[in-house]
Amino acid sequence: MKVLRVNRLRAAILSDAIDQIGKFKTVERLVNLNADRKRLWLDQIQSVESKTKNDSMPILLSHFYKETI
User: For the chain, which residues make up each domain, given as ranges?
Assistant: First the structure.
């Protein structure tokens, strides 16, 4: 995924790029399609372009003891 970001003051000072403060740049970010761990998924998503449906159900923490979590 490509995102348009602006350089912030603190980050520019720490990276010694003071001339880049307030300037926009394109940043490429990796997205984990299977990052939602609060749900129990029946399958894993392989691609954004896949036309498959992936059902899920919420994980209810009230069914577990605190020591097992």
Answer: 2-63
